[in-house]
Design goal:
heterodimer; A: 370 residues; alpha+beta; Cytochrome-c3 Hydrogenase, chain B; three-stranded antiparallel β-sheet; 15 helices; 9 strands; 48% helix; globular; B: 418 residues; mainly alpha
Chain lengths: 370, 418
């Protein structure tokens, strides 16, 4: 550096969002940029705040399930499941086994749908147009299946406290098997198109690296944490429902970059497919709903229940005062907690990387803002 | 919905319409005659007619690419593309155009109005002016310049000015980022583009398009100069901002770059210029490397030769759209790396190989060999960089995955019976 810098430069503030195609909803990132380099990032949230937790205090336990549908709106059934499990734990009831199987099948199918959406939108973030069409096509099949089971494509309100609303249709098992074959082909198609694409690798390898200690201190969970190299999966470490009956793999990465976070989700798609197949093999006839009072009225007490959502570790802290409405519902949304690690990941990033990093966290704003 | 025969008939009429446009253009050229130093009202009038015919023809060909791209991307993505307006959605582009012209033309209150409205023209005009010297067939060219290739390069660079001004005058942060990106990108990729074209010029010994095409009567230059073609094609993609290089208007980063604040007719002009530029790159590839209107089985006359040229051009356009359906977008620093560290050395390698071949008078097939060898080495080095490591990593992850065995056995049907 021989030439003396005789002029002053100022960093530019770039307001990315709340209306920006790459922020996946109404998320706002204030980037401080020096040319194409990101110097600092300040996330702003709250544009989608609906006060779900407070609303839940004025609804009966059964009605709260519908509020949970609307938290992570691309993985509705996983959310329903977590609240129902919390309420059941409080009431001390155990859903019948067939009900649990149906729940796990639906939750894993929803995880697949969510991951397919991620693969598609992530490709869009990086400028590839085709995978989102493939991803949506397969997600559409899954949603059609949901529609035939629950009557709704997204806001199902199907998983109830004590089991599920009703038994699945008679031809459920063969149809899901056919669906799984189709979806597996679709996942494989996206995988082949994107995973080892030169440009995709150049854009994601070594970008947004985060190590395990930093990730843990930020509260990162789910596939994003596993990408850094820690095999933490609630299904494995704190098994619930019928997960202990299943054999599966928990994919673990080592670099903690965007590509690893992407690839963990691709691998999880294959694992979810295998889990659903196992559930279909093991499922037997029987009741789907536990014997319980029509209106849930848990005894006084409090409980914290957590489970594995597509985006990470979702937790519900539920306090009951003995009435038919919860006294307090506190959600630990994985997207919100994962968002904390945005700033450490953005170190030395370019503007284009900022998009890639945010996309790789796979946030859903309905859950971040609640 | 109209019946199938009617739809086919309308499509046929549209197709014939393009032919009519070509015919009108031919007539206008005949009317124009040879260049004349005495500019009279008559020659000026003839010129206006010829240019108007050219403008109409090029606009039609340009927007035909919009339809082609939407249809092709649709097919590649498991969709059908436009189907509603006109047969096979052919008139969708027209409907969109009318919509854009009717829209309110909004400009930011803090923009520099004069520059803001001139910038689209600065992008639009060069993309049409280059057609003055691009021949559609042996005789179908406004002016067959001796320095036609040079003229093309000189004029096509001008559109950068329009992009920068559009970005600057919009007074928007995304627009200015896009404008700077376009400046960096287009200036760097101009060099390999020129080197690719220069390779052809060296072999053909002429800068006149018709000479270059006629020199390919036996062997198209793509067979002779694969390296130069790859360099030309990749930098051509970057020149017109096509997908892996659509960085300056990247939808998911700078939301449209220099065009972000434009609407209505002004945006439509940018849009049209983009597709005409794509057509220019495809046409240039067809002329310089695929042999233009030359058909290996003898001379066919005027009409088939235009069709052959357009066919080759559309083929290259299809390849460009195919790339778009496949690849994500590069980052700005990677774009610069590809340009300066890969394409420019390769371009120089191509030029030097040809110079050596010409100097020692080696047979031409040695060019193919040398060029291919350089290409293979470059491709191998490039592939090795990321892919091998990533595949190994993926295999390691598949093995490293933590296996979870069933911790408790569900009571099976047998145990229940027992």
């Amino acid at each position: 550096m021989t030439a003396e810098q005789t002029y002053d430069t100022v960093d530019m503030m770039l307001n990315m969002g709340p209306q920006h195609p790459a922020t996946h909803g109404v998320f706002r990132m204030v980037l401080t940029i020096d040319g194409e380099r990101v110097v600092d990032v300040t996330p702003h949230i709250g544009y989608l705040h609906r006060g779900s937790e407070k609303l839940a205090e004025n609804e009966s336990y059964g009605q709260v399930v519908t509020l949970f549908d609307r938290l992570d709106y691309v993985a509705n059934l996983n959310n329903e499941l977590i609240f129902c499990r919390a309420a059941e734990r409080l009431m001390g009831i155990e859903p019948p086994e067939r009900g649990q199987y149906i729940r796990v099948i639906l939750a894993e199918l929803n995880r697949l749908a969510s991951h397919l959406l991620f693969i598609g939108t992530y490709a869009i973030d990086l400028g590839a147009m085709t995978p989102i069409m493939y991803g949506f096509r397969e997600r559409e099949r899954i949603q059609n299946m949901f529609e035939s089971v629950t009557g709704a494509r997204m806001m199902h309100n199907f998983i109830r406290i004590g089991g599920v609303k009703e038994d699945v249709p008679a031809d459920f098992v063969p149809r899901v098997r056919a669906l799984l074959d189709d979806v597996e082909r679709g996942v494989h198609e996206c995988d082949r198109l994107l995973t080892f694409n030169e440009v995709f690798l150049a854009r994601t390898r070594g970008v947004g690296v985060i190590d395990v200690p930093t990730a843990l201190s930020c509260g990162l969970t789910g596939p994003s944490l596993r990408a850094s190299g820690m095999a933490y999966d609630v299904r494995k470490d704190y098994p619930y429902e019928v997960y202990p009956y299943l054999s599966y793999k928990v994919p673990v990465g080592e670099n903690g970059d965007c590509w690893d976070r992407y690839y963990m989700r691709v691998l999880e798609c294959y694992e979810s497919l295998s889990m659903v197949r196992q559930c279909l093999d093991q499922m037997e006839e029987g009741p789907v709903m536990a014997q319980m009072r029509r209106i849930a009225r848990p005894p006084k007490g409090e409980v914290y229940v957590h489970g594995e959502n597509p985006r990470g570790d979702i937790g519900v802290f539920l306090v009951s005062d003995g009435t038919d409405k919860p006294y307090r519902v506190k959600v630990r949304p994985p997207s919100f907690c994962n968002l904390v690690s945005l700033r450490p990941m953005m170190r030395d990033a370019y503007i284009a990387d900022a998009v890639a990093i945010l996309g790789s966290l796979d946030i859903v704003l309905g859950e971040v803002d609640r | 919905m109209r019946s199938k025969p009617v739809q086919l008939a309308i499509a046929g009429v549209l197709f014939v319409g393009v032919g009519v446009l070509v015919a009108v253009f031919t007539l206008a050229l005949a009317l124009l005659g040879e260049p004349d130093d005495n500019v009279t009202a008559l020659t000026a009038g003839k010129l206006v007619i010829a240019l108007f015919a050219l403008l109409t023809l090029i606009t039609t060909l340009g927007i035909s690419l919009v339809w082609l791209e939407r249809k092709q991307l649709g097919r590649m993505q498991g969709r059908v593309g436009p189907t509603r307006v006109g047969p096979f959605g052919l008139l969708q582009v027209v409907a969109d155009g009318i919509k854009l012209l009717m829209k309110e033309d909004v400009s930011p209150s803090s923009s520099s109005k004069a520059i803001f409205y001139v910038a689209p023209l600065l992008v639009f005009v060069p993309s049409f002016v280059v057609w003055l010297t691009i021949p559609l067939s042996e005789d179908l060219v406004v002016r067959s310049l001796d320095l036609g290739v040079f003229f093309f390069i000189a004029v096509s660079v001008l559109s950068i000015v329009g992009l920068i001004l559009a970005g600057w005058s919009s007074n928007s942060k995304y627009a200015i980022l896009g404008g700077f990106r376009s400046a960096a990108q287009l200036v760097s990729y101009e060099i390999p583009l020129i080197l690719g074209v220069l390779s052809v010029v060296m072999v053909a010994d002429s800068m006149r398009f018709t000479d270059v095409v006629n020199a390919q009567a036996t062997v198209p230059y793509i067979a002779l100069l694969p390296l130069a073609f790859v360099v030309f094609f990749i930098s051509g993609l970057a020149e017109v901002g096509r997908t892996p290089f659509d960085i300056y208007f990247a939808e998911s980063e700078v939301v449209g770059g220099p065009f972000v604040e434009y609407s209505g007719a002004h945006w439509a002009i940018f849009f049209l210029a983009e597709y005409v530029n794509t057509f220019v790159v495809a046409a240039l590839g067809a002329l310089l490397f695929l042999g233009g209107w030359v058909w290996p089985f003898g001379d066919l006359g005027q009409v088939p030769s235009v069709a052959i040229f357009l066919g080759k051009t559309y083929f290259l356009a299809v390849v460009i759209f195919w790339v778009r359906a496949t690849l994500p977008r590069l980052r700005i620093d990677q774009l610069m790396n590809v340009g300066w560290r890969l394409l420019i050395p390769l371009g120089f390698a191509s030029v030097i190989l040809i110079a050596v071949q010409r100097f020692y008078g080696w047979p031409t097939w040695t060019l193919t060999l040398m060029s291919l060898a350089a290409l293979v080495v470059a491709a191998w080095v490039q592939m090795r960089m990321q892919r091998k490591d990533a595949v190994a990593t993926a295999q390691r992850y598949a093995q490293r995955a933590v296996e979870v065995q069933p911790s408790r056995r569900r009571p099976g049907p047998e145990s229940q019976q027992a």
